Amino acid sequence: MTGRSLQGLPLDDFDYDSILGQCCEMPVGYVQIPVGIAGPLLLDGFEYSVPMATTEGCLVASTNRGCKAIYVSGGATSILLRDAMTRAPVVRFATAKRASELKFFLEDPVNFDTLAVVFNRSSRFARLQGIKCSIAGKNLYMRFSCSTGDAMGMNMVSKGVQNVLAFLQNDFPDMDIIGISGNFCSDKKPAAVNWIEGRGKSVVCEAIIKEEVVKKVLKTNVAALVELNTLKNLTGSAIAGALGGFNAHAGNIVSAIFIATGQDPAQNVESSHCITMMEAVNDGRDLHVSVTMPSIEVGTVGGGTQLASQSACLNLLGVKGANKESPGSNSRLLASIIAGSVLAGELSLMSAIAAGQLVRSHMKYNRSSKDVSKVAS
User: Fold this and answer.
1) What Gene Ontology biological process does one annotation of this record name (predicted)?
2) Which of 101, 107, 264, 279 is catalytic?
């Protein structure tokens, strides 16, 4: 049809039955992405070998160096702040007054239990946590938040929302449902609502890196790191008008782990929202470093997580499939591991910049002297 060759794109030796009807339509092959291992990442007293699928030289090595710095300093600690996937339909009324009546109804605590029963019928795991509304004229945007077990949960929350909308039309028959998603969710695009309110898993991860480790492993010093973080990740990002981008390269680590473990790569947009903080502690000798990530959207069941390669990477982390004893704990642990890995990546890249090593290391590990096309053929 095109007159162009697909030579080099593998077709054989793939289980197409595992993707048809749920992962990809009209497949013509598959793209190979190398997977490297960073670690061990010592997080909350446990060690993790972190799979990263990437074609960017230096990324795995750099994250691995950050893991070493964390490990020899005693490890990192993570705290899960929130766990709630969101969906926000948009409905329209004849007047703004009528739209506001539904807003007040939805946000009245007296009505929550009834709405929760209707919502929760959609799944064994979906549990409504709250509804926040916003009005634009006579249009009402309703942001539903719910827990979704070990699934990332977009389909689950959407089903629950449909149940509630059908229920609401009994008392609000004049409600015109414009769309199940009105972008107040907000999915796969930068949005302040995710940065402020969170979406998916909200995690903060911290570590104290000892002075000698900063010098010997990271090849820099505490004062230089603190100054660089302030001027680059905080001030520089503010000058750039960043939205959730107060970090060095969180998206690098998030994307690599997302691809390796079968997550939705497009959700890297909001999942990479991150603010990196660095502060001198213990009389200025040691470094306290933290990453706060309010919207990590991950699951360990559904979508690409059930494919053989991605399932193997989840198994390596000990979070494959659903946790039957404690539903949701596998996906929450995966989010914490991602935050810990981002912490390691931030430490190493910031140190490379502070020490003036960034260009030199990329010239060494991120450039090929071979003609890759000839090697492949």
Assistant:
1) isoprenoid biosynthetic process
2) 264
Q: Which of 331, 261, 328, 348 is nearest to 66 (CA)?
A: 348
270 in catalytic set: no
Marked catalytic residue, from 132, 159, 188, 288? 188
Residue tagged active-site, from 56, 107, 211, 279: 56
Give yes or no for a contact between 98 and 174, defined as CB atoms under 8 angstroms apart: yes
Tell me how long the chain is. Answer: 377
Beta-carbon contacts of 26 under 8 Å, excluding residues fewer than 6 positions away, are none
188 noted as active-site residue: yes
Q: Identify the active-site residue in 159, 219, 288, 362.
A: 362
Residue 83 bears catalytic tag: no
- d(CA 19, CA 306) in angstroms, rounded, equals 9
**pTM for this model (two decimals):** 0.94
Three-class SS state of 10: coil
Q: Could you confirm whether 273 is annotated as catalytic?
A: no
